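User: Show me an example of a complex going from sequences to structure tokens.

Assistant: Sure. Here are the input components:
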Amino acid sequence: MTDDRGARRRRANGEESRRKILDATVEVAGERGYEGTSIALVSKKCGLPASSIYWHFKDKDELIAAVIERSFDSWLSALTLPGEEHGQPVERVTEMSRQVAKSLLETPEFLRLGLMLTLERRPEEPSARTMFLQVRHIAAQRITAVIGDFLPDLDDDSVRLLATYAMAGADGLFIAKEIGGDSVDLLRLFELHAHVLFAAAAHLSAGAPPPPGLLSP
Amino acid sequence: MTDDRGARRRRANGEESRRKILDATVEVAGERGYEGTSIALVSKKCGLPASSIYWHFKDKDELIAAVIERSFDSWLSALTLPGEEHGQPVERVTEMSRQVAKSLLETPEFLRLGLMLTLERRPEEPSARTMFLQVRHIAAQRITAVIGDFLPDLDDDSVRLLATYAMAGADGLFIAKEIGGDSVDLLRLFELHAHVLFAAAAHLSAGAPPPPGLLSP
Amino acid sequence: MTDDRGARRRRANGEESRRKILDATVEVAGERGYEGTSIALVSKKCGLPASSIYWHFKDKDELIAAVIERSFDSWLSALTLPGEEHGQPVERVTEMSRQVAKSLLETPEFLRLGLMLTLERRPEEPSARTMFLQVRHIAAQRITAVIGDFLPDLDDDSVRLLATYAMAGADGLFIAKEIGGDSVDLLRLFELHAHVLFAAAAHLSAGAPPPPGLLSP
Amino acid sequence: MTDDRGARRRRANGEESRRKILDATVEVAGERGYEGTSIALVSKKCGLPASSIYWHFKDKDELIAAVIERSFDSWLSALTLPGEEHGQPVERVTEMSRQVAKSLLETPEFLRLGLMLTLERRPEEPSARTMFLQVRHIAAQRITAVIGDFLPDLDDDSVRLLATYAMAGADGLFIAKEIGGDSVDLLRLFELHAHVLFAAAAHLSAGAPPPPGLLSP
DNA sequence: AATGAATGAGGATTCATTCAT
DNA sequence: AATGAATGAATCCTCATTCAT
């Protein structure tokens, strides 16, 4: 049995190698961004020679795009959103926020790398960046759907605005956590964010000048 | 006279060269981040040879730190905050938000580069990153002061939480604008953000007073 | 029956694969020479994985040698030389020239690749080069034979010189065509070459100091 | 004095370095062609690190183009063509041929590399190839001029044909020498070539006047 | 008869930086 | 105050080839 393992080690195993490469790449790219990710470093981290990486991925760009894709998938699946059947809006949105906060605490590489790619404005858009914007678009659509569901009276424009604001808050809070470290209570901030979204919704549906103090108890 | 002029010229050129280098660097670094900024590219953009850049700046790290510093200064000076004497809280905060939104639209390189540096988690913290965190800390203190001023009843913890939330919103909205481009109405979003901050304040001050120490580790 | 067909199919595929590889290699090597021909490129062109190429050919050197060999064969067979029985020398040589010109127009890869290999002076003579020199030697012998046949009075040295000159002309004209493209009338040039060979023969048989002006009308 | 030399060695000397690089490159490229010429090999031959080569030349392509240009110049200047004032046509052309033969024996790298580039048909024409074709075009014009001078009665088409034939002969004989080595008497072959050109001229001017337009497509 | 996977060596080129002038 | 030239380390990527299946 143990002998077998030794043999297996020597045997080519594409699937596993691919996984090892991706694992190493998330780690490196999540720390250092697109340019900072060198094939040599990934190679060292995953134990495979650089040329083997090129067997599995056309080039660095495709490698990082693959990382984004996989990270998003695993991040999404880590997000066990509450069913739609129970609970009141406030509680459900709060629960969602909590889920997102937790997932960002557990797998921060996905968003960190994605935001780094987003902020880069290089001439030749790397496909990794495009990939992130795509998966982000998917997330945005989900949020829009949820908001439209919860607040059926809101016009489309306001729904979109609210969705943008919701995502922006998540991005910003994530960054705050990255900077502040342990001194930042991400869960509480996300709770606040959830609460506040209702205020925003009220503000938007009430139309211009929302009566101040409406939201305070 | 002519000698004097020649001398002045030469000295002036020194400063002009420095400026040209910094100008080129904001452009490049704002597009490509820390690693993506190469001395050769900066050299090509500013027309001066690479070795001249090293006459003005010790190394790449110091160059980018200088860029951050200068960008922050010019960003701050573009921020003509309203005096504290007039207006109601709501209006004043709204006006502040508008100012910030406008400044981010005008000089986005500062925050873009800063956030890129922030997200990078490289082993040897470049002083450019540290520089950004410092200037960001200054900004955070100002916001905290303003909030404490407006809402004197709020406990310190809540003020800090609110300040964090305020900055996070700004960061997130900036990113949303970077991604969405013209389809994102940054001014309106910042207005919403201002409103929302009051709701958050209300939530924090009225809601079950947060157990002290919850936020600090 | 069906089994048989399956078996035959499989065996036939072996040969077909070999052919596909050779086809791809002529194309690539005719364009880029020995060094410029990469197994990866050939693999992409023929659709078979690189390792399959190594099943059919020991290494790159042998692959290109095989290409040379096959190209020479097909070039030779495209060369329907006139029988020795009929016609006068002038006409027969002219016809030969025409044939050679036509064959070079139809399958230029053979000579192009061959000349590329010839001009390369690398330390370790690749067997591909040797192969070309061998087949070239065969061609040279044929020409020598033909010349000796036509001009029995010529001494061996002069025959060899003439043969060399004949081949050199063919090579040079081929190159001229490669450079000049459509603006070069290869057929007419080869006709001229044939004519001129007789003048050369006359010059050589007349012995040293050829009477100047003998050839002018 | 000797000390000075030691110091000079350490001192940067662009002109000399450039020359050393070019010298090394002719040697390598003349032997191995475009693809076979590696920057590492050139670096080793000239003693300068690879990165220094990139200070003097944008890339490999430009380096080899520069080699072609310089080689052609030095080849041309090695060609001490006889003055036009004295001698009979036959002798003058014979002398010219001898000069060309000698120059090709002395500096064969120029034509060898040039022909190698010529034969390559890669998609992205390297500028080195273009450069060779340009200098070759200059040479062709000179030959055309000389022929037109010597044989004023010849129509333009025939002059061009003859010039093409003359150059083709030179190319072919050069290749014959490359293949045959010492067994090939290049000087005698070039003498033969000179003679033959007169025969060709006679053939063209006396023979049925070529139908005009025959050569143009 | 074929191929997916692996691999070390080497390819061209760019990097940040230095140094003599 | 500036710069032409140099340099070693690193960059991404391709090379020819092998091997287990």
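The lines above are the inputs; the final block is the predicted structure for all six components together. Residues 38-40, 50-51, 54, 59-60 of chain C lie near DNA strand F (CB under 10 Å from a C1').
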